[in-house]
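G., before I forget:
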Amino acid sequence: NAGVTQTPKFQVLKTGQSMTLQCAQDMNHEYMSWYRQDPGMGLRLIHYSVGAGITDQGEVPNGYNVSRSTTEDFPLRLLSAAPSQTSVYFCASSQTSGTIHGYTFGSGTRLTVV
Amino acid sequence: EDKVVQSPLSLVVHEGDTVTLNCSYEVTNFRSLLWYKQEKKAPTFLFMLTSSGIEKKSGRLSSILDKKELFSILNITATQTGDSAIYLCAVGLRRGGATNKLIFGTGTLLAVQP
């Protein structure tokens, strides 16, 4: 049972480049979310999804797009990377009933934009 | 605006000490409060609290929620060097019939010295 799988683990981008952070879960979880973690800022919610075909914005959505075409996958797209998007990104998922069992987190993607 | 505040921001103790970490919140539609431990990578789930006054316990860790005063504490007794980590508090928000958002505090960095 792989849980939540994030790829890549590390990435360096130049300003203006685009890329997609991948997130996949094999637990049939309805809810999936993307967070970014910056020093002194804790985890901040970027986008989340309550099921296939449904997404919504979190606290810091600007500069990021998401889609949820299947239950398993929830990719995060950076259309034009900026140095302010240098961060560690975590994908998380939870069961249909929400946070009854807490979120399961992926191992993170460390992104540097130069 | 939904807000979760943790204190202290950081803490250094010696092995064997007892520590208390604090989490206060101001949110709409509170559903649950969760504690996570983050070592090198992804946060791992510790406790979820939904009712006031009921202590959750796991080994040397325990936690309790006060929904009237809007705070929770996480206690760690007889600390060990392996307890060194960032401890994150998160509040689950109710949206319709189920929770689908977690708002995190900035975390408390605990360092346990031998």
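The interface with chain A takes residues 4, 6, 9, 31-32, 34, 36, 41-45, 48, 88, 90, 92, 95, 98-107 of chain B (CB under 8 Å). The two ends of chain B are 41 Å apart (CA to CA).

More on Monday.
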